[in-house]
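Readers of this paper often ask what the protein records in our data store actually look like. Such a record has a labelled line for the sequence and another for the backbone structure tokens. Nothing more is needed to write down the fold, since each code stands for a local backbone conformation. The record that follows is passed on verbatim for readers who wish to inspect the format.
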Amino acid sequence: QDYKAKYDRLHILINNAGIYEFASLEEITAEHFHKIFDLNVLGLLFACQAAINHFGPSGGSIVNISSLVSTARIP
């Protein structure tokens, strides 16, 4: 069923997708970088852009969830 018929508009977007693949500086390739960047950054950006087109004039909410990896110490 089409969400517009039931709910009129999108109310909330929750971004909860992400990947992390540790690699040493010597092991990082352009492919490795883009795999992570494209999902974690561009995916979030494009999902937000798509959502705002469906929020309607009264707006909506976007929740971005981050990983604990962002605070982890690498030994």
Remarks:
- The helical segments are 3-7, 30-55.
- Residues 24 and 74 are 10 Å apart (CA to CA).
- The beta strands are 12-15, 61-64.
- The first strand starts at residue 12 and ends at 15.
